[in-house]
Amino acid sequence: MGEHAAVVMLCGIAGSGKATYAQALERQGHVRLSIDEAVWTRIGHDAAEPASGPGPTGCSKGDALLFGCR
């Protein structure tokens, strides 16, 4: 019962340090969810050239939370 949960949402202009701060939080034990990275893993940076990333199984913890895969 003594657990504390928090969500930290970051927004800001490109180059302002959002990813750097999120990675620092991740090193402290937080789970980092990046919709950009999840989409890039699934379909690639250019939708015309899909990446051969993991399918519905074997996805990352962030993908599991965002997309419901296992």
List keywords for this structure.
mainly alpha, 3 helices, 37% helix
Report a brief summary of the structure.
By secondary structure, this protein is mainly α. The protein has 3 helices and no strands.
Helical coverage, percent range? 25-40%
Report the order of strands and helices.
Answer: HHH
Strand content: under 5%
- In total, the number of domains comes to 1
Low-confidence stretches: none
**Average residue pLDDT:** 74
Count of runs of 4 or more consecutive helical residues: 3
How is this structure best described in words?
There is one protein chain. 37% of the residues lie in helices and 0% in strands. The chain is mostly helical and 70 residues long. The chain has one domain (18-67). The longest helix has 10 residues, at 18-27. The model has no long low-confidence stretch (mean pLDDT 74).
Which helices and strands appear, and what pairs or packs with what?
Blueprint: H1 18-27, H2 35-43, H3 61-67
